[in-house]
Predict the structure.
Amino acid sequence: MRKIKLTSREKKIEDALMRGQYIDVSVSQLQAVKDALINRKKDAVLNIRINSQDLKSIKKKAKRLGVKYQTFIAEFLHRLAA
């Protein structure tokens, strides 16, 4: 089995959970989180051709925001579709 590599933020959350530092949430709050995760699940593949300069610009903007460029594009498309 592959070991999952956690980001520093995820590691801090995991450490807090292991120390028992967490907040109980209501059933409705938990359901809202579940629904949000289900709605954001990426279950389709899209292949497109774009101008190489546009891709460079997208990668630069994504790096400035601290996200991967594919995540940046997916988030942009999600907001555009909503």
